[in-house]
Amino acid sequence: MLDNATFHKGGRIAELVEAAQCRLLYLPPYSPDLNKIEKCWSWLKARIRHGIEQFDSLHDAMDSVLKAAS
């Protein structure tokens, strides 16, 4: 099951899936509630936005948030 990102369609992955006698199922367009990683990105972005002013760079903010989460 994949989202509708263009890089998920066609190419080598589709060939491999068909060769395994499987099929690809795509989520409906813009369905973040069905895509678990979207919740993770939303959480990460919210924490970065909340404290971005205390960091010198986006990289530093991301590093801090990810370290706090693990």
Automatic annotation (TrEMBL):
InterPro entries: RNaseH_sf, Tc1-like_DDE_dom. One of its GO terms (molecular function) is nucleic acid binding. Residues 2-54 form the Tc1-like transposase DDE domain. It holds the Pfam family DDE_3. This is Transposase. It comes from Limnospira indica PCC 8005.
